[in-house]
Write a structure and sequence with these properties.
Helices cover 84% and strands 0% of the residues. The protein contains 13 helices and no strands. The protein has a domain of 87 residues. It is a multi-pass membrane protein.
Length: 342
């Protein structure tokens, strides 16, 4: 009885203490764990480069350049598309003003609030947001700083990954070393398969969106397709945010019917993704059941924000693999797992 109470108390301490530690260490941990996930994703690439005769230092450099190149291509593509959209900004601004006037008239009809009163309310809200300007600047500065720190952590993790692995193995009993090796590689494969699968899935969806938008005659279809697809990295809510943003921009840049066309194309594309692309490209790489998938995204995103939402699934998948090591935590890992997952 005492042992059961002690076990229950330990779980309570873990479930309360870990979120508290994650929150208190947020400025450091979110960037560090993103780097850990990226290091796991790039480890197979680094192993392949070393087998081909490349030195460890050069392999680390190539892996880091792969990440830099990915962000550079994405930033360049977005910048080019934004430059095309900028040429249409005056007309889009006029269209937005027309839609705003229609919305004000609708609100006045339904609530009796005059347009001037509506604008006063908006100005008050803008003033409140303006008071947060310095904190926003600080957040933006921190984001840029953390982005560069992520690369520093990534280089260090890739350079010392064998030392880290050796340290982890040395922490277990000699009889458990073989199992520890297997779980380390399983954790790496869990993160790697999920991220690479998501990259393929997002790329495929961007192509499907772009083709659908162009067939539907949507202006700036490629730009809107990129916006909608990139948000897909945010599980569950990403499609809603990206699709809503793309639909509103399409309506402002084109005709009101463009909104319905974008929603229709994305609905069809989501059906294709859910039943063909996602199972084939991503599958259940993290091995989590739907309940823990949703809970992990909600909890980690509440603590770590957007960065946490992006890595919530692979991080929780890695934690589940770690829980498989001990007989005391294995029941929890099995509870978190999907029965259909390998």
């Amino acid at each position: 009885m005492k042992q059961n109470i002690a076990t229950f108390s330990n779980w309570i301490i873990v479930l309360v203490g870990i979120p508290a530690l994650m929150y208190l260490g947020r400025p450091f941990l979110v960037t560090f764990f993103i780097a850990i996930i990226l290091a796991m994703v790039l480890s197979p690439v680094m192993d392949w480069l070393i087998k081909k005769g490349l030195g460890r230092g050069w392999a680390v450099l190539v892996c880091t350049l792969i990440v830099v190149l990915f962000f550079a291509i994405l930033a360049g593509l977005l910048t080019y598309q934004i430059s095309l959209v900028a040429k249409d900004l005056p007309r889009m601004e006029q269209k937005a003003n027309d839609l705003l006037n229609q919305a004000q008239s609708f609100i006045q009809d339904k609530t009796g609030m005059a347009p001037e009163k509506q604008m006063d309310e908006v100005k008050q809200q803008v003033a409140k947001l303006g008071s947060l300007g310095m904190s926003f600047f600080g957040s933006f500065t921190n984001t840029v700083t953390n982005f560069f720190l992520m690369f520093v952590y990534l280089v260090l993790l890739l350079s010392h990954r064998h030392k880290i692995q050796k340290f982890l193995i040395s922490c277990v009993e000699p009889s458990d070393k073989q199992q520890a090796y297997k779980l380390i590689f399983k954790a790496r494969d869990t993160a790697s398969m999920y991220i690479w699968g998501m990259l393929k899935d997002v790329t495929a969806m961007a192509i499907v969106y772009a083709i659908g938008f162009m067939i539907g005659g949507i202006k700036h279809g490629i730009f809107l397709a990129i916006i909608a697809a990139v948000f897909s990295f945010l599980p569950y809510i990403g499609n809603i945010i990206g699709g809503g943003t793309a639909a509103v921009l399409a309506m402002i840049s084109g005709e009101p019917s463009a909104f319905l066309i974008v929603v229709g194309v994305m609905t069809v594309a989501q059906i294709i993704e859910n039943y063909t692309l996602s199972p084939f490209l991503v599958g259940n790489a993290v091995g989590l059941n739907p309940f823990f998938s949703i809970v992990s995204i909600i909890v980690i995103s509440m603590i770590w924000g957007i960065g946490g939402a992006i890595i919530a699934l692979p991080l929780t998948g890695v934690i589940r693999v770690a829980l498989l090591f001990s007989p005391h935590t294995k029941p929890m890992a099995e509870f978190m797992g999907d029965d259909d997952a390998s």
